[in-house]
Design a protein that fits this description.
Helices cover 24% and strands 15% of the residues. By secondary structure, the chain is an alpha/beta fold. The strands form two sheets. A four-stranded mixed beta sheet has the order 1-2-6-4, with helices on both faces. A two-stranded parallel ribbon has the order 3-5. The N terminus and C terminus are likely disordered. This is NAD(P)-binding domain-containing protein.
Length: 184
């Protein structure tokens, strides 16, 4: 969004007919909110990628530190901005290219390449299917096996829309925290 205050100012300053009582002074444009029309299709304007601690299920054992992470995510959701929240599992320095698993609701553990997460975040910025979604991601490669890429035969680029299209609306990852414990 761009407000052309200088052009309006110069009309007042140089065109005496427009405002004969004009006096030069401080220019201020108070705003309480700004709204913009977004082009269709709407894609995320904000992508938050945060490394998920082992699981939201461990929030109590982690002295409720994840409550703050989840509150931040709620604020993003409530902001009105088109967003995507990516929760990668344990980050590695391995190369991108491994097969992936996307899930929702804080259900997975595993590892994923930092480079792959960066590609996913950029892909989310370009995808209407990622807008308003929260998900986790990991590679299919177990922790015990390093993932390597043969430079002579690199993996093909991924179309992340294939994954984004499978996401369900309204799953935030904190559903497990909101479940009542079963009495014993």
């Amino acid at each position: 969004m761009f407000i052309d205050g200088i052009q309006n100012y110069s009309k007042f300053e140089f065109d005496g007919k427009l405002n004969p009582t004009f006096v030069e002074g401080a220019f201020k444009l108070p705003l309480s909110s700004i709204r913009a029309y977004l082009k269709e299709p709407i894609t995320p304007r904000l992508v938050r990628g945060v490394n998920n601690p082992p699981a939201v299920r461990l929030n109590k054992k982690l002295d409720f530190i994840l409550t703050f992470k989840l509150k931040e995510e709620d604020l993003i959701r409530e902001s009105g901005l088109p967003y995507t929240i990516v929760g990668p599992c344990a980050l590695t320095e391995e190369p991108a290219g491994a097969n992936l698993i996307f899930d929702q609701g804080d259900n997975i553990t595993g590892k994923i390449s930092r480079e792959e997460v960066a590609h996913i975040c950029v892909g989310a910025l370009e995808s209407p299917y990622a807008s308003g979604e929260t998900f986790e991601v990991k590679s299919v490669v177990p922790f015990s096996e390093p993932f390597t890429v043969d430079p002579q035969n690199p993996p093909p680029e991924k179309d992340y829309n294939v994954y984004f299209k499978t996401l369900k609306d309204g799953i935030t990852g904190k559903e497990i925290l909101e479940q009542d414990p079963v009495p014993v």
